Amino acid sequence: HRLSLSHNMQLCSIWIKYLKYGEFEETVHHFEKECKNKGKVVPKPRGNSLRDSKTLIIQKDLLSSFDDGDFKVFFELWTEFVPLEVRDCDPHAQKLEFYLHVHFTIFPLKIHLGRHDRADFEVRITHFKHYLETRGAALSQTTEFLPYYALPFVPNPMVHPSFRDLFQESWIPEMKQELEKFLTVTLKVSDTPRLLSLYKDGGRNTKDTIQQLQLQLAEAEKRTSSYMRRFNKMQADHHNLIGVTAELVDSLEATVSGKMISPEYLQSMCVRLFSSQLRQSAAQSIDFTRPGTVSDNTHLCEKHPPSPLYRRPKEVPLLPSLDYDKLKRDLLGGSDRLKALLLQALCWRLTRSLQGEQRDTVLQAYVSNDLLDCHSTRQKPVLLLMRSKNEMVRQYMARLINAFASLAEGRVYLSQVPSLLRLLIESLRTEEKDSVSRENVLGALQKLSLRRSQQSAMIEDGLIDWLVDELQDSDCLSDYTLEYAVALLMNLCLRTRGKRKCAENPKYVLKVLTDLLGHENHEIRPYVNGTLYSILCIHAVREEAKEMSMEEILHCYSKEENPELNRQIEFIIKQLNSEGPESDDEEEDDDDEEDAIETDLDKEEVLQLQPRELSGETLLTTEYLGVRDTHTHTHNRRSAAPLGRSVDEPLQRPVTPISHRNTHIMQVVHTHTHTHIYCIRTTWSNAFWTRGS
């Protein structure tokens, strides 16, 4: 195939440069002569001296601007001659650029602060702020650079401990040396011929590119998996929304015939509506004054049956009694496969039963028959299945304990076993990170931390240190682990002993908490704020927080569009600047929390059925049906936690993530209901009358 003229010229140039590099002068002469005889154009060699000279001048100008502190000239040259792909994609270049901005910002402070220099310093501070809000914003989540985002707000950085290193005599020479190395590599024009470079690389660049793309692909797949989980939650919430909307339309239509809708009914609907871990902002966006039009929702009425609100409620059947003696014998002596199936079935019976009398009856039967052998004197109680060598058995045992801990009476039952906490904490430290077993153990511990006796035991067992260490690497944790770990830490830090435990190493604890303030999972922010508010009542913690410019760091996070969290930060800053004595909470009683089972407690089921194998309720009622009545009388429980705290304040009472979400929604609804109930009824009634006419 004939090559184009330009390709011929390029190939000839490559060969000639290589031959000259190897000092094959005669070969070069004959090659050029033959090319001329065959009519092939040989490009005239271009000397690199001019280009090299220009590069040296640019490098010299950059270094001179660095020495003179002339940031305007420096960054004009930097932007023009350092390639954009290097500045945007090379981590070393990004790091160097950040510290160069710091250097030019504090440059006037290195010399005598006259009036002119102070004015110059203010100009540089403004320039640095602009950089932090634009190109520097990408590094705001990096721990190394986080303290420097407070630099513009510090009156005198020279005496501030966080910036002490910047004013050491060795800092500028080291920075200049790093700059010289970078410019030498980036601006240098290589004399190595292209043919030799191609041979030396041997496809290495291609391999590096493939490896980089594979890493990017793995990261993209990880993000896709996370987004799919969120999408599935949103889809379930959407289906729930349609059902609740149809029921509300039916109920409001009934008001036309004179039937009243109570505020309690609206509250129960909203709890049901937002119980699937919707963000708090969703609850805040409820606007009862704009209910929409009936024409938009008519199809919902056609697809869904009328609401049972105004009918006599149907009797909920109780689940059959079980032979708990036989159950416990097989849990202790059966095969690992049977143990896992039984634990799964017992957990399902609790989590999938209907809330109210049916679930209360199941729990009372478990407790009265001492399902977990909490009061047994036998050497191997059922609880020791947490130490089983079979991972499946341990996982479903942890699921069952987590289900118990989700209910108030279950927590009372579990709290009667002193060895349980040791078993759970042991499992927490030995199970693989983010395994389903460890997630359920963490969930159970977090719910047990609602009880003061359990809080005390966890603090004594060093759980606060473990949590802080775990949260240091928060990006490697699942959403469930992260949320419940932070919520557990907050519950323990509400206690005076927990606060004093944090005060033993306040710098480390505060660093971890401030890093968590910038985490992409905003569900954890209320618990981080609550923890900060609690431990800042300790004088030593306040002093350490002031040393690390905590107030300036908090101001950086108060710019987000979330008024509630902004007001919580204001409370934390007030606590930081307070001088009051340490509070003593050791005489308070246990909180009477609501029952709250997560909707995804049965997620990621890994136990796959084999042919003709029974599971769930079928297994229990076929093989373990009781011969006597094991049901006990149950008492009615309240369905919601008390509305005792303003949503503007940081959390100051022990909570679980699911109960906090429900309580938050109830508070919002409680505020809106009495204000807008008349407006709802009038607007919707008028709409229905209009449709009827």
From TrEMBL:
InterPro entries named among the record's database cross-references: ARM-like, ARM-type_fold, ARMC9, ARMC9_ARM_dom, ARMC9_CTLH-like_dom, ARMC9_LisH
All residue ranges annotated as the LisH domain in the record: 458-577
Name used for this protein in its record: LisH domain-containing protein ARMC9
Compartment(s) where it occurs, according to its Swiss-Prot or TrEMBL record: Cytoplasm, Cytoskeleton, Cilium basal body; Cytoplasm, Cytoskeleton, Microtubule organizing center, Centrosome, Centriole
Region listing for Disordered, in residue ranges: 577-600, 631-652
Alphabetical keyword list: Cell projection, Cilium biogenesis/degradation, Coiled coil, Cytoplasm, Cytoskeleton
A single Gene Ontology CC term: ciliary tip
One biological process term in Gene Ontology: cilium assembly
Residue ranges occupied by any ARMC9 CTLH-like domain in the UniProt entry: 57-188
Signal peptide start and end residues: none
Coiled-coil boundaries: 203-230
Species, as recorded: Oncorhynchus mykiss (Rainbow trout)
Domain of life, source organism: Eukaryota
Bias (Acidic residues) ranges: 581-600
